[in-house]
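Session log. Operator J.P. requested a structure for one protein chain; no other inputs attached. Running the standard single-chain path with token output.
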Amino acid sequence: QVQLVESGGGLVQPGGSLRLSCAASGSFIRFGDMGWYRQAPGKQREFVARITSGGITLYTDTAKGRFTISRDNAKNTIYLQMNSLKPEDTAVYYCYGDLISRSWGQGTQVTVSS
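Structure written below.
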């Protein structure tokens, strides 16, 4: 069974930065697309960013210019560098990986507040 484990969330002040990580278990697993969604309280889960196995990236408009997704295929890990954080970025961030089906991590809380 494939597991994805996020880490790096926490409390940060507006304007600050966080780096999220998502590590996949199973050294023989090679995902295709991987990426991040987030879900704020009372809202639907929304797409944030994704990266293909070849490194092609896609961002939602709210993430462009502030967030950077990257990938280390040797470590089966993706990252989300988040800069210039705003209170509206507060959410649980979930990573995913696509094989035949989509696997999800358990989520990591990001809170942006002064």
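Operator note: The chain has a mean pLDDT of 94.
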